[in-house]
Amino acid sequence: MYSQWTSVENEVRDLGKCTSVLLNYPPSVGRDVAKSVVPSLLGGAATGQGNKTPDIGSLPRFRSDADLKWSMEVVSFGLSLTLMEYETLKDSVQVYVDWLSVLTIPKSTVPDAVKREPLPYVRIMLNHLQNLFIPRKDGLPASQASLCQTVLKTVQYVAQNSVLLDRDTWETMLMFLLNVCDQLLVAPAQINGLAEMLCEQLMQTLMQIWLLSCTCYFPSPPLWKTVGMFFAEWRHHPPVVEYWCRITSALTAKVIAIMHGTAYHKMKIPEEDLKLIPTNMTNEVVMQTWFRMLHLINNPAELANAAAISKSPKFYEIGSTRDAVQDPARHPCLSVLPGIFLRAMRGVSDHCDGFLGISTRKKADVVYLNVMAKNSNPETPPISRKGQKNTSRKQQPSTGSQQNRTQPPATASQRHGNSPSVGVPQGHAAVWADMQPKPHKDGPQVNSVLHLYGQWLFEAALAEVKIGQVNRERGGSIVKRRRSSGGALSTTTASLQSQDSVASTVVSDGAEATESFDAGRSEAIGTLCRIFSCKKTGEQILPIYLSRFYLTVSHGLLGDSFQVLASILVNSVNLFRTDLPGVTCLLPSMLSALETILPDKELAQFKPYVNVVELRRAAIHLLLSMIPLALHYDDLAIKDIQSLWTDPQGEDSEDSSVGAKYTFRSLKLRIIQQLIGALQCEADPTNTQMILGGMLLALQDFALFESAENDETTKASRKSGDNGSVCSDTAYGFFVSCVHLVSQKLETSKSELTVSLAALELLAGLAKAKVDIADSGECRRAVYELCRYIVSQCERPPPHHKRELHSMIVAAFHTLTTWLLEHPYLLDDKNCLRVVLEIIELGISGSKSSPGRKGSGASTVNRGVLKGEKEMNPASKRVLEAAEGALLCVFEHLGAFPSPCSPSSTCSLLNEVSLAMQASGSTPVDVDNKPEAGRTDRFLPADPKTINFVDAVKRFKYFVVRSTVLLGVLEEKLGAEQEPTPTVTLLIRSAGGRKAHVMQFRQSARSDRQSSSSYLTRPARPVPDPDPGVRHNVRHRTFPPEVDRIPLVKADCSIPLLSEVPDEKQTEKLKKIQALIDRQKQYDQKVESRLQSALADEDDPLSLRMTEAVPPDPAQDFQTARLLLSHLNLLTLDSVKQSPRQRLGPDLVMLNRLDPDFPADLEDLDSIPVRNNDTVFVFYHKAGQTTKEEILQNASAKCSQLRPEFAEFLVSLGWPVDLKSHPGWTGHTTTSWKLSNASSSCKVIDLNVESPGVFNGDKYILYHADVLTEVAFIVPVRHPNLTDDGITETDCHNMEAGAREKLQLDLSSVHSSGSLNSNESPNSPTGSVGPLPGSKVKKMSSASRSNLQQMPDCRVAVIWTESYDEIDSFPLEDLLSEMHTGQESFLTAPSRKDMLAIFIHPLENGLFSITANGQANAKSGMAVPLVSGSVVSRRALGQAVRMTASNMCHRRRLDSDSYVPPHVKRKYRINELLARYQKRCTEPDFYTAVFSEQHVTKPVLPGRMLGIQQQNAASEP
């Protein structure tokens, strides 16, 4: 900086100004003069005279300046006396100390001439005081040190309080300090030497006065150049670098405040360091002073080079005066250089962290025990520092930020690695999980920081390292660097697992000082890793910096130093997820380093330097960021950069194995092995959760990749190997390994809630993974392990049964249900079915009924316990409910999901209205043909389309069966049913939801030719034969023809004919007879023709008068409800009568459907979901956006204006549904679980045309569901009519109304349906369930209904952010107003740390970085698979986000004390309906109601209203 300026080195070191004239005389003369003159200048207050109060009268009166100057020459000579003349030396010091008070408050002993013109005399005194600091060879150095400290404090006090100093005086004072410091500090340190005693005081005085000078009169460039030259020769003294670090850190804090303002992250600087900086320094002076102070010691990396430090002539002079010429670089005083080097690097590290805005609280650091041991035992402790505050400064050099980072071990056991938390506060590892550096979003760019500190850091990171000096051998051994006795580097091999490697790193003498420089190297390389990890989104780093960084890190990853390797790992967790160009060249070497960390359970080599829990966590973070790389880049070649170090000459040769090229896919198996090995060795709960999440994420990625690839090579690799083992680098092989390992982890982590939940979530994810299962036995193994886990947890002693234990059991039942639903074929195995049902029985009752269990007494084996004889003693109510839920899913949904109604609903989409409309359609009402008067369907409206829910409910009969099932019975036929058979329609409402069944009483199969219609209808007449054959005209005779040929006799003619009777009277009678005969003939003919016509017409009433035998008319009116209940054996006296032994009342109870409140409560029951519901709100955040309005506006933009992957991500979350016809969860309670007659088809939404805001919940949402959970994905948009709080006016009114409703107390009572029958008996069918006669039941208000459905806060925010640096400043709390579901509480709003959020940041390489929020303080830990720091591939992103969001909500429900499972809430509501609407009546009244109340439509049979007489009358003319 000042290369073209001349220094004032010669002027500073010129001793002519301090030479006294008495030196020209013999020593005895000068000594006698000084003894005589000096005490008189104190006015008789000399130490030897014993007077403490000076005698003003005895003071010399100087008549001229020459007299005064002569006296000052005497004092100057007195200051140069030996320690043998200590009293005179002390008096001389006291004279000048008193006279220097002229610049502040003059003392009485100050001469008048000095008072008149003080500054010239002060400059002379400062020059004379240099004699005091010349080391003496006689006497005790402590005595001289005490006098020197008095002078330094006096000069410091004058500089701080005097207002008379001019520029010349300031320069004289600075040169005085430079001179005395140079005299003492330029030489090598000596044991018990004066320099060691005064070094700290000298540096404190020099630094503080120099800063004061910068405030008053800024030092000239020659002075700055001189002080830089001197500091370069003083650096072998620890206080020199210590005070440089303290001053520069305090100035850096002020510079940062000037550059970025007070809102920027503040460096934590101790108050005593801040006091060293003058308060009146202007911003410009601060900036100029800081930059010059920063370069005061030149390049700090030179502190690792003993040869460079020992170039001073004093070192050569001392080396040549010994008996044998010694290399100055091997001087014993240089053994402290490693500690000095480390302190300088930590100071530079603090500067970089301060500029980047990294909080020192969130930094994992390395502890350097060997260097600390040297610095904590100084060779010569200063006597003046006893009892002072800064006593530990030299023992442990540190700044304020360092005090939080490093704590030296207190016991020897910690130094030997027996404590896992060396150097880290207790609990630190459990709280801080992500380990990512958190730079300020407004911090400088990486290039800017490297321009300032890059050269120092790069050189320091590779201090004493040359290419080719470090070689990695095969077999996992590490080659360590050592300096031989001759100074050359030699190599010795040490195994990673060797315990002796710990002791080998401790430096014991100067010959091995080189190895201890690894502490400073590790600090420098750790700082570089943090700097590059703080790369901003879109920032470009110079290639020269990138190449040097990769080369430096690759050397550190060789493992030649455990300190360096640990520092790289704990500071590089963000390395592979910051879009660093070419960072994948470090992948093979980084993976090799992880292979030395993760499979090692003890990590004994690293315990002395770092918290092994944090070290393993850092390694896990790095491994998580590597998982998708293997398949993302696939067969792309990658070359290990470590070949530049291990084989620089043969790196390009084809036969070089070290420089051989890798492919990313070839690292897949190694990554899998590291995941498996890490899980086997890990004991920390947080680390274990991260590993489990990484395993699930890796399995999903591998499975999706193989399903997309689906080639023959994959199929072939999926087969077993030669020895029958499964190939581990396939999805199925990894699946098998995960099942085995997680089962073991569950067994060993029974008491750890967070680990158990993560392991169970991993098992649930394995069940859902689309893996080609080659052996179903592995799936059965998972089910068996889950059952064994539940049994072991339930059988734990009573003291262990706490909420955490029961949460684990509940989660295990949830996972078991998931496995059974995803793999229903498992229950085809008889043994598996038995085990599952036994476990469910155990959860419900608290014990198993199966035999084979040992009794409590001396008997060996108990017989099986009948279920009816068991006592209900479950582990807890939550466990019982979880087991009931599992049983419900097994019986209702196993192999039956999704239903034909789509996954949107597990319930029937039919209710009373839709069924009543179907029944009305079968018998429509005709306005022209009115029904007969005897029809009983008085509830049927004129138009079926006008049926409402209240009218539809009246057409049903409602019963409660065994207090758990609400049975709605419709006795009308549906429109599609034409067959006259007993048909009944049932609406079954239970804990499992609403189901619709249509039942028909049949006596034969539908395929039978004699169908039910043929049995129930009248048989028709035989059909006449249309071909009668040939008709012959035969005359029918009474007698045969032979009779005519017999002749008549007289007897034959004895009776005459009528015509032969002549009497007229007889003739009249004959005519009357003939008329009667003719009339009879006509009547007979008419009757014959009428009969013929009746036979031809079946509808003619005369045809019914035929005397032939016909079957009776079939029954058309059925009491189907009675028939069904009777067939189910529910109408017996035992079923409808209360039994004293029955706790839940009779089996069958009738409800009063005519109660006006019954339809509303029935709808409330239907509004209770049968599945858990979660809501995910998706936001898009562009770089630089800070307000809620800007973020919401992004959803209204076209997808072409956003990242192209965002639209793909949305559709991977779920499928679009139309809210008009959607029967499931919609994201808000007001629109969810509604039945609509609209078409269920959703129009095709093209996100190339539509904006993502189309899924804002107004018309469409994205939806995903399984048997247990349904998730709604909503993309909120900005509404035009927003209030100041971001809430629409309608929502605001609804919120106010809801709040008022919650504050109201409904005191109305329920209308007692039992008052209809006053003759109740004590054995009423509802006597034990309902209230006592005359009592009233409190009506459920809407507020209580909402409380029953109250859910934990299961809202998850998914933020797609373009800027990773703005995650911490994202306005998450402001967006809470856009995340309404109707289930949250408006009384308390969650804080940011409690809000569930997943931040997705797209990387430039096509992968995605994940940051999770809201689980830091959760008792249940982190949800998997996505944890903070995960990197996800594009194909697995949507599935992983959806699964993580569901697991987050599931854990939130486990943590909640108010959560009630859906099936339990429905069961409670059915019991409430039973207690309120039961019909309290006697048994006869109950049977009468069953027989009499029927609402059926009687069909009209034609011909019934016409009689024979009417037909005859109509036929008469």
Structure, explained:
With 1517 residues, the protein is an alpha+beta fold. 43% of the residues lie in helices and 6% in strands. The longest helix has 33 residues, at 1064-1096.
Brief summary:
This protein is an alpha+beta fold and 1517 residues long. It has 54 helices and 17 strands. The strands form four sheets. An eight-stranded mixed sheet has the order 11-12-13-10-14-15-16-17, with helices on both faces. A five-stranded antiparallel sheet has the order 8-7-6-5-9.
Question: Percent of residues in beta strands?
Answer: 5-15%
The main sheet comes to:
8 strands, mixed
Record the strand order, biggest sheet.
11-12-13-10-14-15-16-17
N-to-C CA distance? 142 Å
Q: What is the tally of helical segments?
A: 54
Give the tally of β-strands. Answer: 17
Low-confidence stretches: 47-51, 376-431, 470-515, 650-659, 712-724, 852-861, 922-942, 1296-1349, 1494-1517
Overall structural class, as computed from helix and strand content, comes to alpha+beta
Shape: rod-shaped
Helix and strand topology:
Blueprint: H1 9-13, H2 27-41, H3 65-79, H4 86-100, H5 112-116, H6 118-128, H7 141-161, H8 167-185, H9 194-216, H10 221-234, H11 238-260, H12 271-274, H13 283-294, H14 306-309, H15 313-321, H16 337-356, H17 369-375, H18 400-405, H19 412-415, H20 428-431, H21 446-461, E1 477-483, E2 489-495, H22 500-504, H23 513-516, H24 518-533, H25 543-556, H26 562-571, H27 587-597, H28 612-626, H29 629-632, E3 637-639, H30 643-646, E4 661-663, H31 668-681, H32 685-709, H33 712-717, H34 731-748, H35 753-768, H36 776-794, H37 803-822, H38 830-845, H39 877-892, H40 912-922, H41 949-954, E5 957-961, E6 965-970, E7 983-990, E8 993-1000, H42 1012-1016, H43 1064-1096, H44 1120-1127, H45 1133-1136, E9 1148-1150, H46 1158-1167, E10 1172-1181, H47 1188-1194, H48 1204-1213, E11 1215-1218, E12 1260-1265, E13 1269-1274, H49 1289-1303, H50 1342-1348, E14 1355-1361, E15 1396-1402, E16 1408-1413, E17 1431-1432, H51 1437-1455, H52 1462-1477, H53 1483-1492, H54 1508-1515
Parallel strand pairs: 10-13, 10-14, 14-15
Antiparallel strand pairs: 1-2, 3-4, 5-6, 5-9, 6-7, 7-8, 11-12, 12-13, 15-16, 16-17
Helix pairs in contact: 2-3, 2-4, 3-4, 4-7, 6-8, 7-9, 8-9, 8-10, 9-11, 11-13, 11-16, 16-21, 16-24, 21-24, 21-25, 24-25, 24-26, 26-28, 27-28, 28-32, 31-32, 31-34, 32-34, 32-35, 34-35, 34-36, 35-37, 36-37, 36-38, 37-39, 38-39, 46-52, 48-51
